[in-house]
Amino acid sequence: MVLLGMFSGIELLIIMFIMAIIFLIPLIALIDIVRSKFEGDKKLKWVFIVLFMGFIGAIIYLIVGRDYKIKG
Hints:
Layout: H1 9-35, H2 42-63
Helix pairs in contact: 1-2
């Protein structure tokens, strides 16, 4: 059986899994940004980066931005 005209069941599940990952990574990054303390306006800058750049912005934050958090 073909769902949505061109995808079978397993293909649709794979696409849904990838879409969930693309949605969840920025959400996790935003939650981490909001819960953390940053110096000055760095928190606002990271929120805008993740919101406007989406998945790529979230990956950049998770790799680079976590070093800007205030420890302690």
